[in-house]
């Protein structure tokens, strides 16, 4: 049995009367790619924000890397080795591509002001950042201002930043949306390689083909509740899932 | 000619002091997008604290260090207790709170120290200089050297250290910076501490230069520095420094040397109106 890296138990987040996430539980194992699927408004991004510390849950528990992590602020989660991307890409647009990654390489040092003040950007940090850019195929863009990159490159930059932080787990929030067909395949290869390097991936994805192909297992949410969990093939045939996506009486295929 | 050069130097000295006060305002605006009007009160408190510690210890260095530490704490307190809880509201809410803090701190100074103009009987430990027949008094030398030192420190901090990189990241997006492992709130507090400590230095320099410390000494700087950061470009540190120096020189030369019959404090606002009409992003701002 594989080790559990992230465990979510009866997680709930209510905004006033809206139950955005309502009693969701799932496990993510080490070296696993877990897909988090569901129609718009199902609570996927809220789940991400709960796991990464942006929100404090209304109820439930999150355990990450062996410690109870719900309620920890985002920078503490980052220090535990959790990196994430954002659905709407948000680079530090005035910084260069390289500096964007260097910022994310500082987790260990940000913990103490004195250390981050004393040790200005050393050669080792720079080297790590350049390696990350090579890994996502952005090495040639290192000195450009991040705000000038096209969307496909920005998605890669977000992944590079997430990798700089997340040595255990990265959360990818619709990293494939808005990309051209020829950009999708190389990015899928990249995600597959990340897992081979021993990093787990939790994936929100609207592109079904991508999600089915990449994910080891899939959890499907609808209206804040988990309606299915299992292998991609099983989930795609699940009548509840088909109903959530296509409505009652939908066809037996999820496109 | 000598008179012109002396006035020019005076202008640079006054501009330097404007720059020191404006820097804190610019840093805060850059990182939180709040117009920190109460910064001028921090500067006033800095002058009082500097005078207090100077009188207690007899050493200007101790006075300066004490005032910087006190103002850093005051700045962090304002940020933690007032601005941070108000960040979720529209920008005029923290602005009104800031005006309230300015008035309250001025009153506190008046109540504690009395409604008198106190003197600041200290000499800056810098030599006076006679350069090509132009006399540079030690107070002007001191202001120029100290300002240059602080600017060099800030430049180094923001462009050459990881703390500076973290500050730049936080000023662009607090949430994302947090997700990258930066404790954004700590960075914000640090920024307030730096800006407030610099304001303390400015307060002491003004106190010594004019030999006056009084509770409303921050009133004119409170709105003049706002005009300066608009002229320089909101949030731009080089813009704020350039605009401050230009204003100091313009005030001294146009009114002190060329005797143009305008109130001295009007210039900053004429400049602001001109900038808003023709170049609303400011001298160094970007759209």
TrEMBL record, chain A:
GO terms for biological process: D-alanine transmembrane transport; L-alanine transport; L-isoleucine import across plasma membrane; L-valine import across plasma membrane. It holds the Pfam family ABC_tran. Keywords: ATP-binding, Nucleotide-binding, Transport. GO terms for cellular component: plasma membrane. Signal peptide: none annotated. Transmembrane segments: none annotated. It comes from the Bacteria. Gene3D superfamilies: P-loop containing nucleotide triphosphate hydrolases (3.40.50.300). Residues 6-248 form the ABC transporter domain. The keyword Metal-binding does not apply. SMART domains: AAA. GO terms for molecular function: ATP binding; ATP hydrolysis activity; L-isoleucine transmembrane transporter activity; L-phenylalanine transmembrane transporter activity; L-valine transmembrane transporter activity. The keyword Ligase does not apply. PANTHER family: AMINO ACID ABC TRANSPORTER ATP-BINDING PROTEIN (PTHR45772:SF7), CONSERVED COMPONENT OF ABC TRANSPORTER FOR NATURAL AMINO ACIDS-RELATED (PTHR45772). This is Amino acid/amide ABC transporter ATP-binding protein 1, HAAT family (TC 3.A.1.4.-). It comes from Desulfacinum infernum DSM 9756.
From TrEMBL, chain B:
The keyword Membrane applies. GO terms for molecular function: L-isoleucine transmembrane transporter activity; L-leucine transmembrane transporter activity; L-phenylalanine transmembrane transporter activity; L-valine transmembrane transporter activity. Keywords: Amino-acid transport, Cell inner membrane, Cell membrane, Membrane, Transmembrane, Transmembrane helix, Transport. The chain crosses the membrane at residues 12-32, 37-54, 60-83, 138-158, 186-210, 222-250, 262-280. Its main location: membrane. GO terms for biological process: D-alanine transmembrane transport; L-alanine transport; L-isoleucine import across plasma membrane. GO terms for cellular component: plasma membrane. It is a multi-pass membrane protein. It is found in: Cell membrane. It comes from the Bacteria. Belongs to the binding-protein-dependent transport system permease family. LivHM subfamily. PANTHER family: BRANCHED-CHAIN AMINO ACID TRANSPORT SYSTEM PERMEASE PROTEIN LIVH (PTHR11795), HIGH-AFFINITY BRANCHED-CHAIN AMINO ACID TRANSPORT SYSTEM PERMEASE PROTEIN LIVH (PTHR11795:SF371). This is Branched-chain amino acid transport system permease protein. It comes from Desulfacinum infernum DSM 9756.
């Amino acid at each position: 049995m594989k080790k559990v890296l992230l465990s979510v138990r009866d997680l709930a987040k209510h905004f006033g009367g809206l139950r955005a996430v309502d009693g969701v539980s799932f496990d993510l194992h080490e070296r696993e790619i877990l897909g988090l699927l569901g129609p718009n408004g199902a609570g996927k991004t809220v789940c991400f924000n709960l796991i990464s510390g942006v929100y404090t849950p209304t109820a439930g528990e999150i355990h990450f890397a062996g410690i109870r992590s719900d309620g920890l602020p985002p920078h503490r989660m980052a220090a535990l080795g959790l990196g994430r991307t954002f659905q709407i890409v948000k680079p530090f647009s005035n910084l260069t591509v390289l500096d964007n990654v260097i910022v994310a390489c500082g987790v260990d040092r940000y913990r103490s002001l004195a250390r981050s003040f004393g040790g200005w950007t050393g050669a080792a940090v720079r080297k790590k950042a350049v390696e990350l850019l090579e890994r996502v195929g952005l090495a040639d863009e290192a000195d450009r201002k991040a705000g000038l990159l096209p969307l496909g490159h920005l998605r890669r930059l977000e992944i590079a930043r997430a990798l700089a932080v997340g040595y255990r787990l990265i959360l990818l929030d619709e990293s494939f949306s808005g990309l051209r067909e020829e950009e999708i395949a190389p990015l899928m290869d990249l995600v597959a390689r990340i897992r081979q390097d021993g990093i787990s991936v939790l994936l929100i994805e609207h592109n079904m083909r991508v999600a089915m192909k990449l994910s080891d297992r899939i959890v499907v949410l609808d209206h804040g509740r988990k309606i299915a969990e299992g292998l991609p093939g099983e989930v795609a045939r699940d009548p509840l899932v088909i109903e959530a996506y296509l409505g009652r009486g939908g066809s037996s295929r999820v496109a | 000619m000598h008179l012109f050069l002396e006035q020019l130097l005076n202008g640079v000295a006054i501009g330097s002091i404007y720059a020191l006060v404006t820097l804190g305002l610019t840093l805060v605006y850059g990182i939180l997008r709040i117009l920190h009007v109460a910064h001028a009160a921090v500067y006033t408190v800095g002058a009082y604290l500097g005078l207090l510690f100077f009188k207690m210890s007899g050493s200007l260095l101790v006075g300066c260090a004490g005032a910087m530490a006190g103002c850093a704490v005051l700045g962090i307190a304002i940020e933690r207790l007032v601005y941070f809880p108000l960040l979720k509201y529209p920008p005029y809410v923290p602005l009104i709170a800031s005006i309230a803090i300015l008035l309250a701190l001025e009153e506190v100074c008046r109540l504690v120290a009395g409604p008198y103009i106190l003197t600041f009987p200290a000499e800056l430990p810098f030599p006076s200089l006679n350069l090509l027949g132009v006399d540079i008094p030690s107070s002007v030398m001191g202001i120029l050297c100290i300002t240059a030192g602080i600017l060099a420190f800030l430049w180094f901090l923001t462009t050459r250290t990881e703390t500076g990189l973290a500050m730049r990241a936080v000023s662009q997006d607090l949430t994302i910076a947090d997700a990258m492992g930066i404790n954004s709130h700590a960075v914000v507090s640090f920024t307030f501490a730096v800006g407030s400590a610099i304001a303390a230095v400015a307060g002491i320099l003004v106190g010594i230069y004019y030999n006056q410390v009084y509770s409303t000494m921050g009133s004119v700087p409170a709105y003049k520095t706002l005009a300066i950061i608009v002229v320089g470009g909101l949030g731009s540190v080089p813009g704020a420094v350039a605009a401050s120096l230009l204003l100091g020189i313009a005030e001294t030369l146009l009114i002190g040397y060329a005797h143009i019959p305008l109130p001295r404090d009007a210039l900053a606002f004429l400049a602001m109106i001109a900038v808003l009409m023709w170049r609303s992003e400011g001298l160094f701002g970007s759209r």
